[in-house]
Amino acid sequence: MLENPKRYTITAALPYTNGPIHIGHLAGVYVPSDIYARYLRLQGKDVAFICGSDEHGVAISMKAKKEGITPQQVIDKYDGIIRKSFLDFGISFDNYSRTSSEIHHKTASEFFKKLYDNGDFIEETTEQLYDAKADQFLADRFVTGTCPKCDNPEAYGDQCEKCGSTLNATDLINPKSTITGETPILKSTKHWFLPLNRYESFLKEWVLEGHKNDWKPNVYGQVKSWVDGGLEPRAVTRDLDWGIDVPVEGAEGKKLYVWFDAPIGYISSTKEWAAREGKDWEPYWKDADTKLVHFIGKDNIVFHCIIFPAMLKAEGSYILPDNVPANEFLNLEGNKLSTSKNWAVWLHEYLQDFPQKQDSLRYALTANAPETKDNDFTWKDFQARNNNELAAIFGNFINRVVVLTNKYYNGIVPAPNEFSEVDEQTLAELKAYPAVISSSIERYRFREALGELMNVARLGNKYLADEEPWKMVKENPARVQTQMYVALQIASALAVLSEPFLPFTAKKLSNILKIDALGWNDVTTKTDLLPAGHQIGQAEILFAQIEDAEIQKQLDKLEATKTANKVENAKAEPQKDIITFEDFAKVDLRIGTIIEAEKMPKANKLLVLKVDTGIDVRTIVSGIAEHFTPEEVIGKRVTVLVNLAPRALRGVESEGMLLLTNNAEGKLVFVNPDAEGVINGAMIS
């Protein structure tokens, strides 16, 4: 670990511009990195907080093909949505760039060319999957097939999402092209590889020995597993039509692999920032007194802890990350977040549905952060944390302090009289909190740090509850002056200490208290955060209650997504054996109307129906009672198989069969091609 660095370069994983930002991205990367950057700035540190849109690679091409637009249209659309979402949510990047920018193309090309000229790559001709119908080589995500390790029939060419195994496309059993559905063939192609095996000893010394005690166990463990398993050369180029051209002769039609190009985006984004601010970018990447920290999700560990460091080591002039505090995954209501399945809480939609509640989500995501294991976000937990913690603890304390100060002293901070032992203990405890919270933040334990921040609010609530100034104000007004002075110091400390976690609340609270700029360490070193005679403003609600109806709306939205996914993913049953026209001619189908209906006694599934078939009125027993009440079906027009041999069911003779099918939710519906949720291929039975 680098002690007392001169500057900090903080990077947050570049989001793919194939979709908006969701809460999994926020919890895993962007909220913790923003907390860290804001905290360092409050300490007066030199910080470059860097990010940008990742706009190359297969994900973009797949999205473009799916939507029938160009890759450029895809990246422009989602870059705009992502930028605005981050800005509105208060993620305080010093620079947010794009890998499609000219400065990035130039930086990535020069980086590749230097390694190429130094002989750091090996050139190999390999057999890769090729779609003859589409006339193109298939990148990893354009191939699906059966995983050779767990038999998942929908594994991708680079990874099986069911068992988590890393794969090569050629490992798949029965591979299929996602472009045409054709079975691909093997075809020779030339590529350049970074020989990771050359860097095994370096990685063992740097990570396995050098960071055994300060990197998170999940990060260290994954790196150790890869290194112990033996590293192999990794391709840094791809046969694609979208990306950065490989800048050497004989590489026509080939692009830089997105995982070579994307991390260089941190460097090009820093260059862009430095040029705009009139700074020199190089110290932020090449000075040994700079602390470099990568914030990522666990799926990016290998790229940031093995591949990118190997690239930097090969280049020779760059520093290595001091830490890579990767988080685990956040699930949503018990299911894995998925962009493709729309199973997500999208940030831009949240900001529309919950205006002015950025901090409520920041708080919930930090309090439930997946720092050591996968965690689950639920809307009920989100509501409880807002109402029972932010509003009831933090907001309640601030409201009481501000209301009482205005009531007793017209909003002027009273001069304290003699401090009691309780006052001195409370103020001493308050002064200790910055160091406690700092310790947690600097060890990347943001959930723990947030808990300590809330303990400051609890300290204030307990002090007021124990001292009860509202009871003492008439009999001992001099004592109440001291009590309110102490309470106002706690409120002021909260305005400072909450800023990394709850920036919108901190700003609102600073405006209420009319606080000028205070630094993190002022809470410990200053005698008066709010001096006697200082005028504060009127009380405002910091955290409004979130009502049940608002939460139900979100749950209904997710339920609609489930239904839509079932419809989209529903598959028709295989065709039955071929029959002749003569076979079909034997079937007598009539339109009828149900005129009576009642439940079959002691049978949960059966309804006894009277059906007017047009040729007679007959009894039909149907197993639809779990889907329809008798009242629902009376008067319903139905399709009836009238020449089915009669059959006795529980003593009642049934003379025919109603034709029904299932919708995507598994609910029976009477045969009607226009019924909601009925797919092409739905079997009538």
From TrEMBL:
EC number, UniProt record: 6.1.1.10
- What does the record note about the cofactor? Binds 1 zinc ion per subunit.
Question: Molecular function terms in GO for this entry?
Answer: methionine-tRNA ligase activity
Question: Where is this protein found?
Answer: Cytoplasm
Q: Known catalysed reaction(s)?
A: tRNA(Met) + L-methionine + ATP = L-methionyl-tRNA(Met) + AMP + diphosphate
The record places domain TRNA-binding at: 583-685
Q: Where is this motif: 'KMSKS' region?
A: 336-340
Task: Name the residue ranges of motif: 'HIGH' region.
Answer: 15-25
> Which keywords accompany this UniProt record?
Aminoacyl-tRNA synthetase, ATP-binding, Cytoplasm, Ligase, Metal-binding, Nucleotide-binding, Protein biosynthesis, RNA-binding, tRNA-binding, Zinc
Which coarse location class applies to the principal site listed for this UniProt protein?
A: cytoplasm
Which residues are Zn(2+)-binding?
C147, C150, C160, C163
Binding-site list for ATP:
T339
This protein's assembly is summarised as:
Homodimer.
Entry function: Is required not only for elongation of protein synthesis but also for the initiation of all mRNA translation through initiator tRNA(fMet) aminoacylation.
Which family does the UniProt entry place this protein in?
A: Belongs to the class-I aminoacyl-tRNA synthetase family. MetG type 1 subfamily.
NCBIfam families given in the database record = metG, metG_C_term, PRK00133.1
- Tell me the protein's name: Methionine--tRNA ligase
Q: Which organism is it from?
A: Flavobacterium proteolyticum
